[in-house]
Structure formats: structure tokens, C-alpha cells
Batch of 2 targets.
Target 1
Amino acid sequence: MAKVLEGLYYSESHEYVKVVGDYGYIGITDYAQHALGNVVYVDMPDVDDEVTAGEEFGAVESVKAASDLISPVTGVVMEVNEALEDQPELINNDAYENWIIKVTIADASELDNLMDAKAYAAFCEK
């Protein structure tokens, strides 16, 4: 069973948002990294790029497949996780510790469209 953490917001495309103040740390869920297998490359946007809820902002590539990253919220990229450039497999080690981008959240009400841990766990079981 994939790990689902309380206190995060989850999308149907298997991204999560960890909200800290006005910022959101976005990554892929444990479920997603299990489904992908060994991650070999993460394509990330640049700092100051805008991301839009429901739209692609990058991709994660594994030995099995490539998967687009869909932003759960709208905002501006403040930081990218540079450690993933050299060690993309960190996502396999702990998907929740190894976020992909940090954004300023433009509209916190967008979080209402996402699932909580309980709803996401149920979604993954389907």
C-alpha cells in the first residue's frame, strides 16, 4: 500500500501540495513513484515561471515510462529542487521529502478542489 500523508492536498493526477504559509511544495505522491518505478530524470520549470492549476509544468521519467507533471495550484515558481537534477532517484526514496517545485500560491481557494489524505487513499484503491 502506498504511503499517504495527512495534512497534504492531493490531485487526481497524483501530485501533492504541502502548504507552508503562502507557499506550496509540489511533488508526486508515493503512489505515483511506485507506479513509475525507478525515476531517472525530472524535467522542471525555471524559477519565476508561472504554473497553472490543471496544466503541465514538467515531467518525470522512469525506466518504464514518462509522466507529465500537472500543477495542482496556480502560482509562480520560487524554487526548484536542484538535488533532483543529479539524483532523481530521491523521489523513489521518499516522494514526500523530495518535492519538485516550490511555488507561491496565487489563489488558496484552489486547494478546495483537491483531495485530503483520506479521499486520496480511497481514490488510489479504485
Note: The chain is about 20% helix and 35% strand.
Target 2
Amino acid sequence: MQKEAERRGLFTRFREIGSELKKVQWPELPQVVKQTGVVIGVVIFFTLAIFGIDSLLVFLRSFVVYGER
């Protein structure tokens, strides 16, 4: 008896999810492409910034530990 009620509740839940997804205002393709480009640009920028800082710190460490390069 309880399993049957759970099963009905599960189907009701999926129906509710479907009706909520119909209410979502999905973005248009140009907007998605533009925002994806922004995300990729930010990731590339911070990757290069972290790489640069890391390289500088490695150089400074070698300078301090070994003297001149």
C-alpha cells in the first residue's frame, strides 16, 4: 500500500517538474553564445594571470635560494 502511494507521488512529482520546466524562459542562442564567450574569456584571463604569478614566484624562489640565475 505504501509503495503504491510512493509511486503515485513520484509520478505526480515528475508531472510537476514538467509543468515548471514549461514556465522557464530559456535564453536565445545568440545570448548563450555571447555569455559562453565571456566565460571562456574570463577563464583564459585568470589562467594566464595565475600562470604568470606562478612563474614569477618560481623565478623569485630560485633567485633567493640559488643566488643569481
Note: The CA atoms of residues 17 and 23 lie 10 Å apart.
